[in-house]
Amino acid sequence: MATKSDVSMSTCIDSYGSAIGMPQLCTDWASNQIFWLVVTLVAIFFVLSRLALPRISAVLSERQGTITNDLAAAENLKSEAEQAEEAYKKALEDARLEASKIIESAKAEIKQELDVAIEKADADISVKASASEEAIAEIRKDALVNVKSVAKDITSELVKVLGGKVDTKTLTSVVNAKMKG
Amino acid sequence: MANSADAKDEGLVFHPMDQFIVEPLFGAGPVHWYTVTNVTLWMALSVVALILIMVVGTSKRALVPSRAQSIGELAYGFVHKMVEDVAGKDAVPYFPYIMTLFMFIVLSNFLGLLPMSFTTTSHIAVTAVMAMVVFLSVTIIGFAKNGIGFLSLFWISSAPLALRPALALIEIISYFVRPVSHSIRLAGNMMAGHAVIKVFAAFAGVALISPLSVVAITAMYALETLVSFIQAYVFAILTCVYLKDALHPHH
Questions:
Q1: Quick one: residue B241, left, alpha or beta (phi over 0 = left, psi -120 to 50 = alpha)?
Q2: Where exactly are the structural domains of chain A?
Q3: B63: nearest CA in chain A?
Q4: b or e along B140-152 (b: 16 or more beta carbons within 10 Å of the residue's beta carbon)?
Q5: How far apart, in whole angstroms, are the C-alpha atoms of residue A130 and residue B184?
Q6: Rounded Cα gap, residues B161 and B159, in angstroms
Q7: What is the distance between the alpha carbons of residues B138 and B25, in angstroms, rounded to a whole number?
Q8: Whole-angstrom Cα distance, residue A166 to residue A17?
Q9: Is the pLDDT assigned to residue A3 strictly greater than 70?
Q10: Nearest chain A Cα to B2, which residue?
Q11: Cα–Cα distance measured from residue B134 to residue B180, given in angstroms and rounded to the nearest whole number
Q12: Which residue in chain B has the smallest CA separation from A24?
């Protein structure tokens, strides 16, 4: 800038092309600046008011609308989800109740069956026990009879060996008397 | 700072203000009001940037915005919320005008941060026009909406009666100072930061202090990035405050 010495067509520039004082206070250029400023401001105003501002305002309000709609939809979905959860919880509760009922009835059934089986087994056991007792009694009776005959035989033999005469009637009564005692 | 004739002979040459010179884009010659200058170029670039961000970036109208669309939407939401919060619901019809000012200033400020660029908003001629437009519009809107009742802006009914004339005088002065402070704040901020960066850049020619100079330029650049946005924000929010005064003049 300082080397342009031939530019100084203004009173605000010295012969070297440098500013004399503050260029801001140079009135030579004011009309030029004001003219172009007015042109610029008018251009900016028209660009803004005709193109930019309506467009941006439309975009912003559209976005606001979308956000509001989305929020409402989200609210709806949330309540639906809550309802679904409620239903699920209820179903779970019902299922639990049902299951406990089934368990209860199964337990009762099993108990009944068990009782029947036990009763049957008891009966069987008592039948077998009485049969055994009978058998035992029979065996005991048989044993007694055998013992009598053996005792008679031994006694008669003993009497014969000792040289006595065996009287069957006396022998039987004696053995019977001894066996009782 | 403009003693360039003396400075030429020394090693260190400061021309921090040369970046603000308005010059014809094609050839040399006097700058007429219609001449295509660097002002034209950088203002046109701000319009191009605006179209890229706000029109091309949003052309997909995506429900899930792309990066470019996000920037456009953020800018829209930022200014719209500011107008609504500061100036009230009934100021929303003026939103496109405030958006125009904000987008022009913020884009010009950021484009001005590019090396070799020309910062259109660093000129008081530019900011003063915008401030005067705001001042006149707000005053006209105030009288159109409230009639003579707009003057109650200066008559503070909550203050003691004896104080009211004095307060009215102060209020009137501060009202008419508004366009001055409004315009000089923006131009001054932009000019000062850029000039300081240029001064630091001149020091970079000296090997001994050049590392410090580079660090200082980086720090200033970061600060200027912040200032670029904040000044656009301040300009827009003050416009909203003035608009609120016009719509609701009663304290």
A1: alpha
A2: 23-180
A3: A63
A4: ebbeeebeeebee
A5: 132
A6: 6
A7: 36
A8: 184
A9: no
A10: A20
A11: 11
A12: B123
Q: Which of A27-31, A129-133, B187-191 has the lowest mean pLDDT?
A: A27-31
Nearest partner of B14 among B193, B204, B187, B189, judged by Cα: B204
Closest CA to A56 of B39, B73, B96: B73
Contact B212, B70 (CB under 8 A): no
Q: Any bridge partners for residue A13, and if so which?
A: A19
Domain borders along chain B are 4-247
List chain B residues with pLDDT less than 50: 1-9
Question: Which tokens is B151 given?
Answer: 């003057």
What is chain B's length?
251
How many residues are listed for chain A in this entry? 181
List A residues 73-132 in contact with B (Cβ-Cβ < 8 A).
Answer: none
What distance in Å separates the CA atoms of residue B79 and residue A134, rounded to the nearest whole number? 119
Residues of A in contact with B19 (CB under 8 A): 1
Helix axes B164-203, B210-247, angle to 10 degrees: 160
The answer to whether B245 touches B153, Cβ cutoff 8 Å, is yes
CA B193/CA B120 separation, integer angstroms: 14
Q: Is the pLDDT of residue A39 over 90?
A: yes
- Contact across the interface for A32 and B77, Cβ inside 8 Å: no
Number of A–B residue contacts, CB under 8 Å: 170
The per-residue pLDDT for range A46-100, each reduced to its tens digit, is 999 999 999 999 999 999 999 999 999 999 999 999 999 999 999 999 999 999 9
What is the ipTM for the molecules in this complex?
0.88
A37 touches chain B (CB under 8 A): yes
**Interface list for A 150-169 with B (CB within 8 A):** none
Q: State the pLDDT at residue A171.
A: 79
Residue B14 confidence (pLDDT): 75
3-class DSSP state of A47: helix
Q: Which residues of B touch A2 (CB under 8 A)?
A: 4, 13, 15, 18
Quickly state the pLDDT bin for A181 (edges 50, 70, 90). Answer: low
String of DSSP letters for A68-128? HHHHHHHHHHHHHHHHHHHHHHHHHHHHHHHHHHHHHHHHHHHHHHHHHHHHHHHHHHHHH
Q: What percentage of chain A reaches a pLDDT higher than 90? A: 59
Return the amino acid letter for B181.
S
**Section A7-26 average pLDDT:** 75
